[in-house]
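REVIEWER CHECKLIST
Item 1: Sequence provided? yes
Item 2: Single chain? yes
Item 3: Sequence as submitted:
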Amino acid sequence: MTETIEIPETDAPNSFAELMLAPELLRAVEDAGYTTPTPIQARAIPLILNGRDIMGLAQTGTGKTAAFTLPIVQRLLGGPRRARALILTPTRELAVQVKESFARYAIHSGLEIAVVYGGVPLGPQETALRGGVDVIVATPGRLLDHMERQNVAFDDLEVLVLDEADRMLDMGFAPQLNRIVADIPKYRQTLL
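Item 4: Structure as written out by the authors:
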């Protein structure tokens, strides 16, 4: 059952500390020069930290990536080095941007992040995936290549993010998304 929750702006946290983020994340946010969460961050982060599936809508440049990155990093702190978070993006440019965002906020966490997309050799990506990573940021087609080659397993996947899900569907990625979702655990947190 899907439930829509609207959080009034007046009830939203006014600082990153109020979001109950781990000290490593508060330090990373401060290092990045941010002091106040944007509306999408203030509303989404508490829900994500509570394990809710969400669909967030906001304009470009409003901090959507940090809205899902920060709680995912917090969730993965101290866990095993396995693919526990998967972020799918429609383009390699967005995949690189999301990976950079994860790297910025995970800088004090020890988490490993890999980015996989087409148009480049498989070898370095295969090495990274087989070496063990916590977070995979990928385009659907290249991820399927790695899945078919058994370079990655999602037995321990906890979070799936479809970043710009509407754009991926508009670009015709529905068959690839369906194949990926069929091969990952059904019991996971899903963020769009």
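Item 5: Key structural point noted by reviewer: Residues 92-105 form the longest helix (14 residues).
Item 6: Recommendation: ____
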